[in-house]
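Handout, section B. The chain below has 258 residues.
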Amino acid sequence: MGETIAILNQKGGCGKTTTAVNLSTALALNNKRVLLIDIDPQGNATTSFGIPKSEIEKTIYTTLTGKNPVEEAVIPTGIDRLDLVASNIALSGAEIELSGEIGFHSILNERLENIKDSYDYILIDVPPSLGVLTINSLVASDSVIIPIQAEFYALEGMADLMEAMQLVGNRLNSPCNIKGILLTLYDSRTRLGRDVYENVKEYFGEKENIFDITIPRNVKLAEAPSHGKPGVLYDEECKGSTAYMELAEEIIGMEAAK
């Protein structure tokens, strides 16, 4: 069975979807079988592959609400070994619909049960909130990657996120480890960037893994979604693409070291 990883931070603008899209692509380019689940109602991960989200009938929403099994919602991205479960605006009503269900917190985990053996990695692009969709993502995941933007308010709300993860682990008996903290939009040339990096290391200390790789602020990564391509394919040689390829290698190396 592969590993299910949630890409999670309740703060927007931290590079969460950029990380989900480019890391999943980079893992696939390293010959891993990968499924990316877009569980954000904005559907930005879906459009990052040039997929018209409004035209997709079977999505993570129809899967969560029991209209179809997840296998029927899996679509190819056009990239070898990388599949997608898409999202669109219909998902925005799922929080209310699911919250009335018995065991609502484990619906996603139950839906994924039959396909976990089909992939080396399942990555979940989680919405920037701590609601029902996020709880479902945590219960369904083995681990979490937390992207943190190198900005002044980088650690704001981090205590709430840690508390939410602890509650899911304790009350729902579904512990989810932090696979790593990923510093994004990082510029080592600026004092702010260096200060934030030190603050992140001080905050997490020896308790959590901080990835060796940092993701630089990079215009090519920002341009890529408008061209319907992940950054690692839009410009393979830019610093952002190189960083995500190295991150994929670091994650694969973590598994090999176990």
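Note. The two ends are 15 Å apart (CA to CA). Compare this with the example in section A.
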